[in-house]
């Protein structure tokens, strides 16, 4: 009986840990950088094709 209870608690903790995204969300919010559009536009020479490295799942990638 005690072994069953311990295994249930352990399993519940494991499932909660695996499927909890709260820590990841907090981490992502604290590492986000925000730039003004004008800064990015100037850095990429107004999104020039000469500065385009390729395209990915989130759009074009510029150097």
TrEMBL record:
Coiled coil residues, start to end: none
Keyword field: ATP-binding, Kinase, Nucleotide-binding, Serine/threonine-protein kinase, Transferase
GO MF entries: ATP binding; protein serine/threonine kinase activity
Cellular component aspect of the GO annotation: plasma membrane
Name assigned to this protein: Uncharacterized protein
Organism, scientific name: Papaver nudicaule
């Amino acid at each position: 009986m005690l072994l069953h209870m311990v295994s249930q608690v352990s399993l519940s903790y494991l499932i909660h840990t695996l499927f909890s995204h709260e820590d990841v969300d907090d981490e992502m919010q604290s590492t986000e950088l925000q730039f003004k559009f004008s800064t990015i536009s100037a850095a990429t020479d107004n999104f020039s094709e000469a500065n385009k490295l390729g395209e990915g799942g989130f759009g074009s990638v510029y150097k």
